[in-house]
Amino acid sequence: MEEAFHKLKRIVGEEITPKKLNYDKGAGKFKLAVDSSYIAAGEVLTQEDKEGKDIPVLYESIIFLKLESKYSQPKLKLCRVARILKKLKTILWGQHFELQFDAKALIEILNTPCLPNDPMTKWVSFIQLFSFDLVHKPGKNFTIPDGLCRRPKNLEEDEDAPAFDEE
Hints:
The chain is of the alpha/beta class. The chain has helices spanning 2-15, 73-87, 89-92, 105-111, 118-127, 143-148, and strands at 30-36, 40-48, 54-63, 96-101, 131-136. It has a single domain, classed as Nucleotidyltransferase, domain 5. The protein has a 5-stranded mixed sheet. A hairpin with a 3-residue loop joins strand 1 and strand 2. The longest helix is centred in the middle third of the chain and has 15 residues, at 73-87. The chain is globular and about 55 Å long. One of its GO terms (molecular function) is endonuclease activity. InterPro entries: DNA/RNA_pol_sf, Retrovirus_Pol_polyprotein, RT_RNaseH. It comes from Austropuccinia psidii MF-1.
């Protein structure tokens, strides 16, 4: 029992506690892992340390608006990336990073110049302002962002929050 407690203490105290971002030249690569469910988008921003291990820097979760939660899966996936990048633009603007996700369809969506509707076109245009490499990660290896996008909705959270274009 005591051994399990010490292991948990080490994991929480060292492995998942967010650290400070290092913008110095030669510092490790930033990695943004994003996932979503029909209610929210979750992400974890990590930075590689000297040994190549991903160290968490920031955890984030964004609740979707009622309208957004009714989007089709491809539209919802694109919306989540745009909303997360908009929220983190002061951190990621001008930084090359790795954008990780568990949906292969997102590569095609982001590389397709002509999309079927106006909001998706706006989101792609905004997302492409950032410098990143797209990386697909299998869902089974995507536990942290997956957990952050499934958090229960707080009754006090505002249903009438501004949409992507209104923020």
